[in-house]
Amino acid sequence: MSITCTLFVVFFTISGALAQETKTYTLRTVAFYNLENLFDTVNDTLTLDDDRTPDGKDNWTIERYNQKIYNMSKVLSKIGSPDALTSPDIIGLCELENRQVIEDLTNHPHLREKDYGIIHFDSPDERGIDVALLYKKTVFLPTSFVSLRLLLTNENDYRDYTRDQLVVSGILDGEEMHFIVNHWPSRSGGEARSKPNRIAAARLNKSIIDSISKLSPEAKIISMGDLNDDPIDDSLKKILKTKGKVADLEKTDLYNPMELLFKKGIGSLAYRDHWNLFDQIYFTANITNESPDQYHFWKAGVYSPTYLIDKKGQYKGYPLRTYAGGNYIGGYSDHFPVYIHLIKAVD
């Protein structure tokens, strides 16, 4: 079922009266959410998940796990509202342990009737956290998907295991689209020291985008994720060469609507009273071109309703997370979700 929204556009003035034309659009939402350590309660001896077990430091019980599933599925069902009258059509996810936790999410009553498909691969990350893509089966038909490895080494020349980049191609309401889901290396050890790892992640992402574009010059590509960098950092501006203004775009450029949000002071996570916008969605310039029979970009946002905000204490105003200061508070995530709306005119 498609959701339509009605926009009223003022075109000109006649004798002091406003002349209006009503346009109706089909609206599709693409979202991304960092789930903040969505682990099951089972100890996996091959990964560093010991803290998120019943006997671990976090005392991660089945009751706390079920509450986390409830909370995460609730948020996923609402991202992009009130513009969209339903949950997102495409959702990129990160910080999840395995396919089972994704199935628990999509089978929750908050999401069950949406009939989401799942694309997921186990990545080599040391903590066992992965990325994934959810899609409404009535809207999107995947035609190919692959998980591409980011190969890193540390200062001792040993392999530094991290998340893969997930690439999914398919048909969105009859239109070919490509999605990339990212979770770039963290700032652990400091921003400057860890920067080369994110530069490497950006280079891999650019290589993927360039490869798709070489095969199909008119390809519409949307990349999303927790990049652990802001829209103005070198990984975005110097490697991917993203631009924050539609007027500045050339055919082969990438548009990042999150850059304008960031410059307005809007963030998706906070640390020491400083807001960052690490969670981003950017895409090929052709998605900004309005076409009568194809989807194009309408607007972007950070989903931060009051129920997702901590209302008291040290972290007042921050995202209401699951653990704060080492204590379980039963919140949601340390990140807000982000989204973009795509629209197409209805005859």
Please characterize this protein's 3D structure.
It is built from 5 helices and 20 strands. It has 347 residues and is of the alpha+beta class. Strands 1, 2, 3, 4, 5, 17 and 20 form a 7-stranded mixed sheet that branches.
Give me a quick take on this structure:
This protein is α+β, with helices and mostly antiparallel strands and 347 residues long. Helix content is 18%, strand content 36%.
Question: Which terms summarize this structure?
Answer:
347 residues, alpha+beta, 7-stranded mixed beta sheet, 20 strands, disordered N terminus
Instruction: Report the average pLDDT across residues.
Output: 93
**Alpha plus pi helix count:** 5
Structural class, please?
alpha+beta
The count of DSSP E runs of length 2 or more, i.e. the number of strands, is 20
Shape: globular
Strand % is: 35-45%
Distance between the termini: 17 Å
Q: Uncertain segments of ≥5 residues (pLDDT<50)?
A: 1-19
Task: Specify the biggest β-sheet.
Answer: 7 strands, mixed
Radius of gyration: 20 Å
H/E topology pattern: EEHEHEEEEEEEHEHEEHEEEEEEE
How helical, in percent, are the residues? 10-25%
